[in-house]
Amino acid sequence: MSGVRQGLLETGLLYQAAHPASMAERVGDMHLGSSLQKRRHGAHFHFITVPNATVVLNIGLISVGATLILSLLTQATAATTSIGPVPITLALIALIVGIPHGAVDNLTLTRGLTTRQRLIGVTAYVSIAGAAALCIVQWPGMAFLAVLGMTVWHFGTGDVEATRELQNLAPLSGPPRVAYALALGSAPVLLPLTSPAAVSTLTAIEPRLATLMNETAIIGIRITVLILVVLCLLWLIARGDLRGVIELFALAALGLLVTPLVAFATYFGFWHALRHTARLAQVTYGTISWRSMVLVSRGGAPSLIGFVLILVITISFVDPVLTAERALWLGLAIVWGLTVPHMFMVTRFDARMRSARSPVGNTQLRDRQQNVGL
User: Fold this and answer.
1) Strand partners of residue 169
2) Under DSSP, is residue 77 helix (H, G, I), strand (E, B) or coil?
3) What residues form DSSP beta bridges with 26?
4) Is 44 helix (H, G, I), strand (E, B) or coil?
5) Sign of the dihedral through C-alpha 268, 273, 276, 282
6) If you count Cβ atoms within 10 Å of the first and of the last residue's Cβ in the chain, which end, N or C, has fewer?
């Protein structure tokens, strides 16, 4: 065994003896994404660069804080009922920033695909996304509610898993995970819909959606989400999870105080998408760095170009007088449509990563490592 490896093992044993509770909670860096790392790197295991992982987490939190301050200073708050060009532009930028993270779902697979399998997979993926987007455009009522529910769950579970992984913590399970995921997903998605600006926004991008946002629905959503957020905050405080408390409180403040489009832009582009990209960088390249994250995002460039081309073609040939609001609605429909197959892919990815990071999974991996002399 090499001197460096011996030193790492001795350091881990000393830390474990000094901090048994912490070691029971935290999962070894080398265990994250082990199955995917072994496929790409053979028997070499890579350690998460903790500072970079922390930076990724902090970027989302800092972005939310900066957005809250700027919104209050510029009075672009949730009480604003008019839709200016800046919020719409920010929302479109958020879609452009976030699309690449959902266009590299092939990186969530445990093995490479043959050319035939890749073609079949792409065809099925695009077909499902296209059908979902068409349903949203043609029947915005029920389709909007269905996608809204999926979005809350997808964002919430994605943030739970990403935050635990990037902090190198064991996964949550059971009712606490469900409640925490619903709180994290509802705060940046459902709370903005309760703002005075929401009805104006929904009417502008798709008039038929405004009928869903009556006063009873607004009050019900606000009360339900806030109760869930408060309960989860109390649970996080009892666990001593300071970061979790700050992040959930920040997302709730973002959803309550900031105009909906800006809130979505901040959360989607600099929180959810960035954290998922960091996870993919870890399992694909064995490290979280800006270079590895750029390499991951580069794989989604064709989808980003396709998204822009679809909007340009629609504006130029299908509807030359397409307004900014209508363009935003079509963009949202495309992204929501892509969310459907993306959600299923990420759900499978989360399950596999949770299994690898669980105490049982780590024990089995540790046994395999010892058998090969690691």
Assistant:
1) 26
2) strand
3) 169
4) coil
5) negative
6) N
- The sign of the torsion formed by the CA atoms of 235, 237, 241, 246 equals positive
Q: How far is CA 21 from CA 17, 26, 30, 44, 358, in A?
A: 10, 9, 19, 28, 15
pLDDT at 120: 86
Cross-strand pairs, 187: none
Instruction: List all residues 6 or more positions away from 304 whose beta carbon is below 8 Å from its beta carbon.
Output: 96, 99, 100, 103
Give the pLDDT mean for 243-260.
93
Q: Tell me how crowded residue 79 is: count the other CB atoms within 10 A of its CB.
A: 11
With b meaning 16 or more CB within 10 Å and e meaning fewer, what string describes 106-144?
A: ebbbeeeeeeeeeeebeeebeebbeebbebbbeebeebb
- Sign of the Cα pseudo-torsion (26, 27, 30, 36, in order): negative
What CA–CA distance (Å, rounded) separates 44 from 4?
14
Residues for the chain: how many in total? 374
Which tokens hold the place of 212? 């869903």
| Residue 106: DSSP 8-state | G
How does pLDDT run across 177-204, given as a tens digit for each residue?
999 999 999 999 999 888 877 777 676 7
Angstrom distance (rounded) from CA 65 to CA 257: 12
DSSP secondary structure code for residue 286 in this structure = S
**Which residue do the tokens 């898993």 mark?**
161
Burial group, residue 329, by CB count within 10 angstroms (0-12, 13-18, 19+): buried
For 278, counting Cβ atoms within 10 Å of its Cβ (0-12 exposed, 13-18 middle, 19+ buried), the class is buried
Contact 170, 27 (CB under 8 A): yes
Between CA 168 and CA 162 the distance in angstroms is 10
Q: In this structure, are residues 219 and 101 in contact, taking their beta carbons and an 8 Å threshold?
A: no
Cβ contacts of 141 within 8 Å, gap of 6 or more: 208, 209, 211, 212
Alpha-helical (H) ranges within the chain are 3-18, 20-25, 34-41, 50-74, 85-102, 115-138, 140-166, 174-189, 196-205, 215-239, 242-257, 260-267, 273-285, 290-298, 301-313, 324-357, 359-371
Q: Provide the 10 A C-beta neighbour count for residue 164.
A: 19
